[in-house]
Amino acid sequence: MDYVETFRQHADDCRSMAKIASDPASRDTWNQMAERWMRCVQHAEMSEQEERRRDPRQKHAKRMPRVVAIQKERRAAAH
To answer: Of 23, 38, 49, 79, which sits 20 to 30 A from 69 (CA to CA)?
Structure first.
């Protein structure tokens, strides 16, 4: 699963809802939710970049930090 793209899709969905919202308060709420999803995108991208820097074997992998942490724990336990 590509979390970055999923988060982006959620942000796009929120922006779409903001466009059709009938009152300003609802528009603001949807836009704020879109901004939060975009922050999730940024965090996920940074996590992926950091992991690729630390582990060259994962150069093209798109993984969430917890999955990577579990894999590292298993590798460490095996040694």
So the answer is: 38
Q: What is the largest CA-CA distance in the chain?
A: 60
DSSP-based three-state secondary structure for 2:
coil
CB 38 within 8 A of CB 5: no
How far is residue 38 from each of residues 3, 15, 22, 48, 62, measured CA to CA in Å?
12, 11, 23, 15, 17
What is the average per-residue pLDDT within 23-37? 98
pLDDT tens-digit readout, 8-24:
999 999 999 999 999 99
Closest CA to 47 of 75, 24, 66: 66
Domain boundaries, the chain: 3-78
The encoded tokens of residue 2 equal 């590509």
